Amino acid sequence: MFRRAMQSVRRTAIQAVVVVGVVEVTTHLPSQGKSSEVYHYVADEWGIPMLRRFLPAEMAHHLALEAAQWNLTPTHRPSKTEQKLDVSTTLWNGKTAPNCIGLAAGFDKDGVAIPALFHMGFGFLEIGSVCLKAQPGNPSPRMFRLVADQAIINRYGFNSLGADVVEENLKKYRNGGQDIDDDDDVGGDEADKQEDEKETNEENKLSTGEAVLKSVWKHLSSAISAAIGAAIAASKKTQQNDGLLGINLGKNKDATTPLRDYQTMIRKLGPYADYLVINVSCPNVDMEDLGTSTASMEALLVGCQTQRDELDTEHPVPILVKLSPDLTDEELKEICDALMKIQIDGIILTNTTSARPDSLLSPNRVESGGLSGRPLRDRSTECIRKVYQWTEGSIPIIGVGGVFTGKDAYDKLRAGASLVQIYSSMVYRGPGMVSKIRDELAEIMIQNGHRSLEDVVGSEHSELFWKLRERRIKGEPVLVLDTMDEEAKE
Question: Is 321 helix (H, G, I), strand (E, B) or coil?
């Protein structure tokens, strides 16, 4: 009986090892899981094209977000090339993004899938736009694919569950989710002791073969439990090492006191943010009540900064502003002068555009709303280039618009962006493109002799680049925030 039992266990173990071995060699799923090449391939080459073919754009967006919530999205595929470089970026108050590729606002508007999105490989995330009160946004259909142009037109209109719901989601994320408190298990040790004694008595009644099988199962169960515990611990550790979390703030359609609403959201959500974004440039929302002049924008941002300074946080939460690509050079220059004057912490360039280039081919080009994706790439990069030059590299820039490849990201970094965001390109390339862009960017950096992102940012402006590098070597202030730190010390 004992010999047959052991033979059965041995055969089962050998079969399991063979099956796992074959699967490992062909797919790497057992060891690499959702970061394996096959998982990325299925998601990018099968999943995303099927969503585009069979589902309307907004429904596909919701399904992709659901997949992220259920942790079904691919996780980052580590790049050996990237590991040779320093791809981290440290900006506000020593806050560090582990890599420069982030997710733009608009995908996760309410902060429901933050951990899974970080695990996809983003160095920073921006949720929102969040409105103070819940609102449905514009009626559907309100999102359209321009497949021939690799672009998107959306007119969502700041659909939001509201700041209260988002605050609860952020609390849950910052607290590591809903964890079971082991301390609540009063008398747990005594109960375990009694259970062990019970199992020992039962085992004494079993035959030798049955006892062996039960023992094998017991130890196997313990190993599985230990593996699960280790996975949970690793997950918590990973979350603690997540990148930066930004919160994009927008105004309600029926807002009568927009500044007061922004200030209320800063009080509620600021403590959970690594940075806040004041969105004053969405083409799908009437922004006229915020004022159309640079002076009115300046007054709004100063009011937001004043509220930020009243928060009980270790360091002031950085406040950034997101600008439109449709501004003229004169308007953009005037705004830059105002932003330097009030010492804004950062600028996001750019939002979606209301313009429709003559090069667009898709029938959906006639839809109203904000255009994003490939057609916006060159304009957003040009805005980055000009703003970096006008501000002499003193204000951190987040570049967004038309980033599909590592080369696209590299061009924005050289133009002056410290960080780069993507969104529309995932609609066409899939979630695995985050890892691809990071790997491609690393390859380009090595080919051009760069060892860190600091070697890339603003390098297109040769004279200014070396001037700023000399200041860093001497320990002199470079960014606006560096100047603020020096003033605080005095």
Answer: strand
User: What phi, psi does 325 have (nearest 5°)?
Assistant: -80, -5
Which tokens in the block code for residue 480? Answer: 């606006």
Interatomic CA distance for residues 328 and 308, integer angstroms: 30
- Vertex 276 angle, CA 310 and 374, to 5°: 165
| DSSP letters spanning 337-368 | HHHHHTT-SEEEE---BS---TT--SGGGGS-
The neighbouring-strand residues paired with 372 are 152
Q: 3-state class of 97 per DSSP? A: strand
Query: Pick from 317, 224, 220: which is nearest to 267 by CA?
Result: 317
pTM value? 0.83
Which distant-in-sequence residues (6+ apart) come within 8 Å of 471 by Cβ? Answer: 477, 478
Instruction: Give residue-wise pLDDT tens across range 270-304.
Output: 999 999 999 999 998 887 767 678 999 999 999 99
Pairing, β 346-349 against β 319-323: parallel
Identity of the residue numbered 101? I
Q: What backbone torsions phi and psi does residue 104 show, to the nearest 5 degrees?
A: -75, 160
Give Cβ neighbours of residue 486 (< 8 Å, ≥ 6 apart). Answer: 477
Q: How confident is the model at residue 219 (pLDDT cuts 50, 70, 90)?
A: low
Dmax over Cα atoms in the chain, in whole Å?
90
The DSSP-derived string for 158-197 is --B--HHHHHHHHHHHHTTSS---GGG-TTHHHHHHHHHH
Long-range CB contacts (< 8 A, 24+ apart) of 174-181? Answer: 174/272, 176/236, 176/239, 177/115
State how far the Cα of 133 lies from the Cα of 395, in Å rounded to an integer. 31
- Say how far apart CA 202 and CA 196 lie, in whole Å: 10
Bridge partners of residue 153, in order along the sequence: 144, 371
Structure tokens at 339: 């932003």
Q: Which amino acid is at 342?
A: I
Residue 414 one-letter amino acid = R
| pLDDT top residue among 32 and 206 | 32
Burial of 369 (0-12, 13-18, 19+ CB in 10 A): buried
State how far the Cα of 204 lies from the Cα of 223, in Å rounded to an integer.
Answer: 23
Confidence (pLDDT) at 23: 40
Question: Does the pLDDT at position 182 exceed 90?
Answer: no
**Residue 452 DSSP label:** B
- Asked if residue 385 lies in contact with residue 329, where contact means CB atoms within 8 angstroms, the answer is no
Of all helices (H) and strands (E), which one includes residue 422?
Answer: strand 419-422
Per-residue pLDDT at 218: 56
Tokens representing residue 394 in the block? 């003193």
Neighbours of 70 (CB within 10 A): 10
Q: d(Cα 87, Cα 238) in Å, to the nearest integer? A: 18
Tens-place pLDDT, residues 347-381: 999 999 999 999 999 999 999 999 999 999 999 99
| CA distance linking residue 474 with residue 247, whole number of Å | 34
Identify the residue whose tokens are 């002056």: 416
